[in-house]
Amino acid sequence: MTNTNVSVELEKLEKLLNKVGDLVITNSMMAQTIDNLPSGEAKKSLLEKINLLQRHIVELQDYATDIRMVKFESMYETYNNFLKEIIPQNKKIKFILVGGETKVDKSLIELLDTLIKKIISNAVSYGIETVEERVLKDKNEEATLKLIVNQLNGQISFCIEDDGVGLNKEDIEEMTGINEYTNKFNADLEVESETDKGTKVSIIVPLTHSILDGLNIKIGNNIFILPTSSIVESIQPTTDMIKFVGDGSSQLLMLRNEFIPIIRLYEYFNIVPKSKKLEDGILIIVKSQEQKAAFLIDEFLQQQQVVLKAIETNFRKVESVAGATVRGDGSIGIIIDVKTILEAN
């Protein structure tokens, strides 16, 4: 049987994806130029052709990305076998992979492999009790170690979670020292722990390139991009939908018997809005995992495909910003990080 597999250097695939990103930007520039033309049959014909070109570019991007992406479930045996090798005889640990359908760049898996194994090893050595200790605490004698993979808003997270004894302050400080390693690929390390409940270590990595659908939103004279994957719906609020809480300084949106916190993005980004009155603006309900919020904006504009670039590569990490893109007119567009904003409120 003929072998149809071909080995390609990751660097060449990187160049291919970057070139596809350039095509998306060029297509956006052409679309904006055509949109500024006077109405007529010629404009209509050009719009049809540019839309067809956009579909071809999307397909090309999907193919190029798919070449270097693998479902993370393919790593299950690797980590399950590694865990079996290091478990001492007085401990029982079950490995569970959540989010295995998430596609991850092969090069990123190679970069993170050593770090993930180190965190698993720490959990086995220090975070998880022996069978005897767990039985005395009325816990299941078999501990659970989960590796949870999730992708959202231009970031991908790898969470290693156990139901063990939990780490003390000194252990956590020692764990955060791994940040020196994560700096190599602009990742963040977060450690959460609770006594006798367990520990959760999260590695959050920005995607260096990604093409996503975004909605242009306007606040004052500023235009931002909101990933459409985070948008639930948008509404024009009425007075009876706004409820005051506490001393009256905080407000909630009541929508279909659900109370949703309102975040005034003009305050978050320290800019002057068109209006500060909720009833004069638009509320866009966004969601990140189980969290919801209503973003107050002045208006929303067109939807478009954008090429996400991590700004920390050439600048520094900016809270609440997932990345940036080049607009059709050549200007820089800021992509909002919904997850970070919701977690901070």
UniProtKB/TrEMBL annotation:
GO cellular component terms, semicolon-separated: cytoplasm
UniProt xrefs under Gene3D superfamilies: Histidine kinase CheA-like, homodimeric domain, Histidine kinase-like ATPase, C-terminal domain, SH3 Domains
EC numbers, comma separated: 2.7.13.3
Stretches assigned to the CheW-like domain: 211-345
GO biological process: chemotaxis
PROSITE patterns: CHEW
Entry keyword set: ATP-binding, Nucleotide-binding, Two-component regulatory system
GO MF term list: ATP binding; phosphorelay sensor kinase activity
Reactions accelerated catalytically: ATP + protein L-histidine = ADP + protein N-phospho-L-histidine
Domain of life: Bacteria
InterPro entries: Bact_Chemotaxis_CheA (IPR051315), CheA-like_dim (IPR004105), CheA-like_homodim_sf (IPR037006), CheW-like_dom_sf (IPR036061), CheW-lke_dom (IPR002545), HATPase_C_sf (IPR036890), HATPase_dom (IPR003594), HisK_dim/P_sf (IPR036097)
Nucleotide-binding in keyword set: yes
Enzyme class: transferase
Primary role: Involved in the transmission of sensory signals from the chemoreceptors to the flagellar motors. CheA is autophosphorylated; it can transfer its phosphate group to either CheB or CheY.
Protein name: histidine kinase
Species annotation: Arcobacter ellisii
